[in-house]
Every structure is written in structure tokens, then in C-alpha cells.
Amino acid sequence: MYDVAAVRRDFPILSRKINGRPLVYLDNGASAQKPQAVINAVTRGYAEEYANVHRGLHTLSNIATEKYEAVRGIVARFLGVADEREIVMTSGSTEGINLVAYGWAAPRLQAGDEIVLSVMEHHANIVPWHFLRERQGVVLKWVDVDMNGDLDPQAVIDAIGPRTKLVALTHMSNVLGTMVDAAAVVDGAHAKGVPVLLDGSQAAVHGPVNLDAIGADFYAITGHKLYGPSGSGAIHIRKERMDEMRPFLGGGDMIREVHKDEVTYADPPMKFEAGTPAIVQQIGLGVALEYLMGLGMENVSAHERGLRDYARERLEGLNWLNLQGRSAGKGAIFSFTLEGGAHPHDISTVLDKKGVAVRAGHHCAGPLMDHLGLSATCRASFGLYNTVEEVDALVDALEFCHELFG
Known about the structure:
Elements: H1 4-9, E1 17-18, E2 21-22, E3 24-25, H2 36-47, H3 59-79, E4 87-90, H4 93-105, E5 114-118, H5 127-136, E6 139-143, H6 153-158, E7 164-170, H7 182-191, E8 196-199, H8 203-206, H9 211-214, E9 218-222, E10 233-237, H10 239-242, E11 255-259, E12 262-265, H11 279-295, H12 297-316, E13 321-324, E14 333-338, H13 344-353, E15 356-357, E16 359-361, H14 366-372, E17 377-381, H15 388-405
Parallel strand pairs: 3-15, 5-6, 5-7, 7-8, 8-9
Antiparallel strand pairs: 1-2, 4-10, 9-10, 11-12, 13-14, 14-17, 16-17
Helix pairs in contact: 2-11, 3-11, 12-15
């Protein structure tokens, strides 16, 4: 049985107060808090075990290298990937997607070639493709969501034309909570000979992911949302795609030999990992993923579905609250505005006075904001340590806002 009270005790920050009130942290979609196990691992890494990896033969270097390289296998297990050599360590999803843009797409795409995106992409899965549009004449094709915020897999597949070279989609919207039927998109795209990149920054946090079953060519995750340190992350790249890629960053570790007139590269995945990595952060990510797998991602998903259903019921009962995204199978993410014109920044500030932390702004999703006809929303995003009592605290704070702003 999932014991949320026990889980909360693993996160020291949850015991603090904000403005004299218990912290209700509902900004997990931006960054999640860290369990004590991760904090301990990072502290130990710097205080007792720090050294550079891959280069030394002394004791500390061996310890750091062993722990760092073990994370590759942990990530593979977490994502349901059979071969850990298909895992490239990155600073997060942004670097992972840029690696694909520079290392795979840039040398292959020509003017007039197409990349299919959905309108609800995070900027991290938009801007790298805009670089190719600006610099190489690549065409971006956009697929809209419906009135509930759902993305029809067939609409994505139908957008694929003879010059489409890549489909790049979020697996879960960071604004609407919409889950994309990734397997259906991958099957349809592969049937047309088109590879698929999935931004897993949100989806991998909230439930089990099995990439060997989904079959995506590229899948990026970021550590700071997965209860791990910032500056950590990874991307899964199928071997046949790795073989098609050129290196993105050059430097130490990604080479075999360097001479004045010749460079030979290391085998993947090291070929795509240049320079001294975020050693301690990645070790912390490994601990965070082990923590999640210890809880069981199915259990985490079930807990968050319960929060989602309760929050949906409570929030829909506020007839002056405008909710964005009403997908039946969405995650526990709620974006909203208040009738009457109160700005989301002001709403967020008032909620903070009540100890409730939410996000306000465009959430790095400009095209989706344009589609919704909004400049900004507030967003309450739930995680594995949140409770139904915190849903009630959010609703109470929103009712105070409504009274305050009229």
C-alpha cells in the first residue's frame, strides 16, 4: 500500500513553513523536491568521494567512475531499455534534444524537409527545430489539440508527408497534463519510415515508461523533475540512430585518439559525451531513480490519479475558475485563470502568502498559449508526495483569491 505520509518524511523541505503556513508545494512540473537519499548521495559525493571520472587509476577516481557509470544502467532499467549503451548522459532534456538536432537532424535535413510538432510542445522541443528552420530552410508542421486538450495520434500520422523526416512530440504536456498515445504515433510514423523523438520530461515522472515497447527512436528525460539534482539527465537513442549521428560537442572523453591532422572518436554512447560530466549530479539522479523504482512507478501513478480525480472535482466546483485542458486521461496538472481578469502572477503571489506554491506564466509553451488565446496561466502540478489535504488547501487559497479580486 502506498503510504504518502511515509513518503513525505523522506523529503525534508516539506516540513518547513512559508509565510507562517505549512508548505504546499504544487510546482512539481517545473522542478520536484529531493528526498533525503538524494541529498545524502550528493553530499557524500562532494565530501567523501569526489574525483574526475574515466581518467584516473586512484581510489577516488575509481569510486566516482563506478558510481557514475552505474547510473547508465539505472536509467536503462527505469525506462525499460534492454541495452544501456543506448543511454547518453546529458544535463537534461534540453541538451538531449539539442544533441539530436545537431547530431542527427542537421546533417540529414535539407531545405523543404519537414519536422512534425504538436502545438503543446515545450520550448525545449521547439527552439532547436527553429534553428534548423532559420539556418537550413526546414519546415515545421504543427498539429493542434482538440477542445479538451487531447492530441489525436491519427492527426499526427496524417500530417506526415513525403518530405517529413522527424516527428518530435511531448509524451505529456507540461501545461495541460495531456498524455500522448506515444505507441500509436510511433507505429504510424515508423510505418511511413519516419523516426520519432519524444520529450519525456513530464511523462517519465508520473508513471512507468517502457521504451522497448513504445519503440521511440529518441526519448529525453531531465533529472530535476525526477526528484534528482538539476544538471542531470539522459536521452535514450536507438542504436541504429546512434550510428547515423555525428558528435555534437567535442572535447575529452568522446575521443579515442587526437593528432594534429586526425581525430578518431570513441564508440557510442561516449562519442556523444564530451568533457567532464556533472558527476555528482548524475550519481544523485541514479539514487533518485532507484528511489522511484523502490516506490514502484505503478504505485506513484495510482496515487497521482487519485489526486487528479479529487482535484478535478474540487476545481470544477469553482464556477469562476477557468480550467485549461480537460482530457479524461490527463496527469495531475491543472492550468487555470480566474474570471474577472486577475493576472496569474498576482494570483500566484496571493497563493504564496497562503503557503501554496504554484507556477505562473506561459510555462515555456508559447504556441500553446497562442492556441488557447492566453498570455499566461497559473499551474498547479502534483507529485508523489502531495495529498488530498493539499488539494483542499489550494482550493481554500483560490477562494480567498476570488474574494480578494472580486
